[in-house]
UniProtKB/TrEMBL annotation:
<keyword id="KW-0808">Transferase</keyword>
<dbReference type="GO" id="GO:0030170">
    <property type="term" value="F:pyridoxal phosphate binding"/>
</dbReference>
<dbReference type="GO" id="GO:0008483">
    <property type="term" value="F:transaminase activity"/>
</dbReference>
<keyword id="KW-0663">Pyridoxal phosphate</keyword>
<dbReference type="InterPro" id="IPR049704">
    <property type="entry name" value="Aminotrans_3_PPA_site"/>
</dbReference>
<dbReference type="InterPro" id="IPR005814">
    <property type="entry name" value="Aminotrans_3"/>
</dbReference>
<dbReference type="InterPro" id="IPR015422">
    <property type="entry name" value="PyrdxlP-dep_Trfase_small"/>
</dbReference>
<dbReference type="Pfam" id="PF00202">
    <property type="entry name" value="Aminotran_3"/>
</dbReference>
<protein>
    <recommendedName>
        <fullName>Aminotransferase</fullName>
    </recommendedName>
</protein>
<keyword id="KW-0032">Aminotransferase</keyword>
<dbReference type="InterPro" id="IPR015424">
    <property type="entry name" value="PyrdxlP-dep_Trfase"/>
</dbReference>
<dbReference type="GO" id="GO:0005829">
    <property type="term" value="C:cytosol"/>
</dbReference>
<dbReference type="InterPro" id="IPR015421">
    <property type="entry name" value="PyrdxlP-dep_Trfase_major"/>
</dbReference>
<comment type="similarity">
    <text>Belongs to the class-III pyridoxal-phosphate-dependent aminotransferase family.</text>
</comment>
Amino acid sequence: MSHIFPRHAKSAPPVATGGAGCYLHDAAGKAYLDASGGAAVSCLGHGDRTVIDAVKAQLDSLAFAHTGFFTSEPAERLADLLIAHAPGDLDRVYLVSGGSEATEAAIKLARQYFVETGQPQRGRLVARRQSYHGNTIGALSAGGNAWRRQQFGPLLLDVRHIDPCYEYRLRAEGESVEDYALRAADALEAELERLGPETVMAFMAEPVVGATAGAVPAVPGYFRRIREICDRHGILMILDEVMCGMGRTGSLFACEQDGVAPDILCIAKGLGAGYQPIGAMLCTGRIYDAIAEGSGFFQHGHTYVGHPTAAAAGHAVVSAILERGLVARSAAQGAALREALDAVFGQHPHVGDIRGRGLFLGLELVADRATKAPFDPARRLAARIKAAAFEAGLICYPMSGTIDGRLGDHVLLAPPFIISDDQIGELTDKLGRAIDTAL
Ligand code: PLP
């Protein structure tokens, strides 16, 4: 009997024993095409020698030194590299161990910034109903996923959630994309008016929504309007690129394509590419200076912040992404995958929408294409697609969407940037069969 506390107590997953390129293998020798990169983690694929060697070399010299006493060369190198390529005025990097830690730190930093700058009345956070920001209490409070939140209500912070920018379902008949961008963003303005803008510290959003709806980008103009609203009311814009950052959408940071830069940016997943657990929160010099010139101490800190071995992995991963031209490859193979999805699913009676950016793409499944009616949740379609794909040797990321409870079934695809044209063919072929089996 296993003593592991598994993710799903009612399932017995196979034992993963190895990985090479776009494939993972289990103990029985079965190969799986990793078309979701775990959950948008494995951007370089599996078994990347450069990253493995960088981690080994770091372990040989210095595995760990507590940041209460030391900084380290890999942490400094990684921070320099990230800031050299970061958008806007982002100037400081706070290294953590994963995505939830990055968003949790962002929420606390926003609050401390206003305390340190003499605006202690600013303590409210606004986020979106279609979002996932992690599973720790603050991050879970920020997220709008009703299913993940439902048991924990009494523990959650009072975060206000507005509608997302979700063109497929929320753009009105006959409404132009430009008008919809403004209407969707103005939901923030309306919420600020309700709350009293002077009580709000920040707005948090994913530029491309991942784990709650399968790769939903905002329409052009939405985030520019959001930026303008945040600036007008003096609130911070926190962008969560834990999933969609690090080249995943065809630009190093997803927000570059929206023409905006945040005050605080969260990254993780592709930053370590699975070789080490690492995430980061980047903030502007203005925010950092407020702390540095104030109390001097960000009231946060976990034992493993700035972990040297994780930082060495992160540095090797970001260097590989940049030096091997993998951002452009994510854009090019993303376009190829999109074309293949359009060819296979464009006329499918139960695929209502195909969307996303770069190698971050999603399908939305519907009972009826004309009315966009979702399937009955009792059918557990997403779970059955996942099982059928896995059986066929394909790892993808099906999920049930949420805006107030369940809305539709989605499949998220986020394969390694090195995916070949043949592997794209294998992906769409296996996915098509898995969907049809599950239906
Ligand atoms: N933010 C986003 C956008 C995510 O997709 C996730 C994980 O899926 C997280 C935060 C949480 O990251 P982690 O699972 O590394 O804690």
